[in-house]
Amino acid sequence: MKTYLPEDYRPLLAMYDTQKAISLLKRLFEDRLGALLNLYRVSAPLFVAQDSGLNDNLNGVERPVSFDILRSDTVGEVVQSLAKWKRLALKRYGFYPGKGLYTDMNAIRRDENELDNLHSIYVDQWDWEKIILPEERKLDYLKLTVMDIVRAVCDTQDTIEAIYPQLGSLGKLCRDVTFVTAQELEDLYPELTPKQRENRFVKEHKTVFIIGIGGALRSGRPHDGRAPDYDDWDLNGDIFFYDELLNCAMEVSSMGIRVDPVSLDRQLRLSGCDSRRELPYHMMLLNGELPLTIGGGIGQSRLSMLLLGKAHIGEVQASIWDDETIRICEERGVVLL
Length: 337
Fold this sequence. Notes:
Structural class: alpha+beta
Number of strands: 11
Strand content: 15-25%
Number of domains: 1
CATH class: Alpha Beta
Shape: globular
Strand order of the largest sheet: 1-5-6-11-10-9-8-7
Order of helices and strands: HEEEEHEEHEHHEEEHHEHH
Distance between the termini: 21 Å
Largest sheet: 8 strands, mixed
Number of helices: 9
CATH architecture: 2-Layer Sandwich
């Protein structure tokens, strides 16, 4: 999908009103998410040591932004997500089962191969992680957590619309979550690409959680890439809302129950990443030294787009854009921050 602006698109909020609304939206959502999931705010790193094993490898091909440090022999890497760091942080904070943390995560995705309405090289999200009991490592617990996140989003929308009535024209997001596995989607639409399947299904069901991302489906291909060392591929997924303005499925969260020693061992082997076993973080995981957790990321800019009726992610975040995107937005009077 390239940059596209609907024919009659006009922002519902002026530029500075948008900034005020984003600030309010973030405070409201953080408070609601924290209350529903029992999460507490903590500080998080912008970068980690290259040899720590803590950075997220994403799909395994994205190059992290790295730099040498004058007063140290260490090479630093800007985080690509905090999926691994959070689990180690929970151990350090001494949190107990049922309690978790959330934080702001800012990343640079230099190898983002799409710059369009929803994709930027700058990523801002709420990263969260929560300790769970062994008996909670199951699909039912994952689904209950998904429903709490959707509830937090919809409650935030209700409050924002009460303060900015003009946003009422966007229509309410659907609170009822439809759960579907990636394999069920492939069986339903074998002739479509994974992205086309998402758009087709989410357009019909409005709010959707796709379960099981990272492992190979019966076709031999995964629905989407997922690193082998944080989510359990059988107990993870993505939350989508249907964006009526852009007429597409919008993924707002990637999340899941995290790997235990058994699933980590299996996924490292399946993905050909056995060399990671020697990294400090992975050794702790394989030795059962880290707590069992569930966690994920929730896109701040995407949620702002969805709740404030914005057509381009550059209206709610400051980033760098290609010449075509700049030209299209200038011609339509859409201001990129």
